[in-house]
């Protein structure tokens, strides 16, 4: 189990490294290929409690609680004092004394001696900053293993991320109801899995949902007038609609942007153009030539043509030709410094004698 530690200011880094190497060897013996790690932020050393109240031994013990091989994703794990003593090289009495200090004086942990479960108060604040399906799955799986439900509530109070805190609270509340009603815990676990929010779906499921949505949109992109009268006016030519959409899709304007396509198609019916389809396609070609593949750019071109009363492609072409003729030629300036006209170059200057 790898631990990320601040290199400077940690007199016990080598001891913790040795402790974690024991875990690595034990994992290798068990055939485990996936290594775990725990992060200790550099702000750890700036914490007022760590700076002002903890002894060097306290700091060492706290780092051990945060990074030892039994830690979990949820900040609640099962560990015995005998295991702590073995890992740290302490006596049972020393570990018992340290546990008392951290529970009563520093108030950073809770320990249930009956279930041998330890909960770290600020675990969620430091380690549960990101959600996502893998994290949520791991949290749910580990919460099911907790016997002392009050520890779940204890850790949840200091989790800043809303969706993760809600998951802890939901789990704790449902387990409390389970105790009151006397229902089977296995039934509870199945019901809890079924009631997880939809935002925790797997990546694979999300990909499938996106694929289905894309397929649905693809059907909408090539509408027939009979089957999709809500998208286009039935008085319009189905061929015109299809030609515009095909040009849009094949030229990188945004395959899935159905809303933009509907806005563009509205120009077939709502504009004053005599050749609306040809004008729209020409505007899209200009957008491609200028590398401006956006709906607003196309609509801007169409509005300019309407303002200039250019209603056909021929009128647009004629207008552009006239603009080129009336456009003043750009004046070119010679490179370098200008030489006065009256200046005469004397190549024999300075060669007297």
TrEMBL record:
Residues 202-234 are annotated as: Disordered. Residues 204-219 have a biased composition (Basic and acidic residues). Residues 246-319 form the DnaB/C C-terminal domain. Pfam families: DnaB_2. Belongs to the DnaB/DnaD family. NCBIfam families: DnaD_dom (TIGR01446). This is DnaB/C C-terminal domain-containing protein. It comes from Heyndrickxia sporothermodurans.
């Amino acid at each position: 189990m790898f631990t990320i530690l601040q290199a400077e200011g940690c007199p016990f880094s080598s001891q913790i490294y040795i402790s974690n190497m024991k875990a690595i060897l034990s994992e290798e013996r068990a055939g485990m290929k996936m290594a775990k790690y725990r992060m200790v932020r550099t702000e750890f050393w700036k914490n007022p409690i760590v700076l002002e109240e903890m002894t060097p031994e306290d700091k060492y013990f706290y780092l051990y609680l945060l990074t030892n091989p039994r830690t979990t994703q949820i900040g609640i794990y099962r560990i015995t004092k005998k295991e702590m003593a073995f890992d740290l090289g302490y006596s049972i009495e020393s570990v018992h004394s340290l546990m008392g200090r951290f529970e009563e004086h520093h108030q950073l942990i809770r320990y249930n001696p009956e279930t041998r479960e330890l909960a770290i108060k600020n675990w969620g604040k430091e380690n549960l900053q990101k959600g996502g399906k893998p994290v949520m799955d791991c949290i749910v799986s580990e919460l099911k293993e907790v016997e002392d439900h009050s520890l779940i509530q204890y850790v949840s109070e200091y989790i800043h991320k809303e969706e993760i805190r809600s998951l802890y609270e939901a789990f704790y509340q449902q387990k409390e109801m389970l105790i009151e009603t006397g229902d089977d815990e296995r039934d509870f676990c199945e019901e809890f899995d079924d009631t997880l929010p939809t935002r925790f779906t797997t990546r694979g499921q999300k990909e499938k949902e996106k694929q289905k949505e894309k397929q649905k949109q693809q059907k909408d992109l090539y509408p027939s007038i009979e089957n999709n009268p809500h998208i286009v006016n039935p008085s319009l030519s189905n061929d015109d609609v299809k030609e515009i959409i095909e040009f849009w899709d094949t030229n990188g304007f945004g395959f899935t942007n159905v809303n933009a396509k509907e806005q563009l198609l509205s120009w077939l019916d709502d504009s004053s153009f005599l050749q609306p389809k040809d004008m729209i396609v020409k505007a899209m070609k200009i957008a491609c030539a200028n590398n401006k593949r956006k709906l607003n750019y196309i609509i801007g071109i169409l509005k300019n043509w309407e303002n200039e009363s250019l209603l056909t492609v021929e009128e647009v072409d004629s207008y552009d030709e006239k603009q080129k003729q009336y456009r003043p030629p750009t004046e070119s300036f010679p490179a370098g410094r200008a030489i006065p006209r009256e200046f005469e170059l004397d190549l024999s200057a300075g060669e007297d004698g």
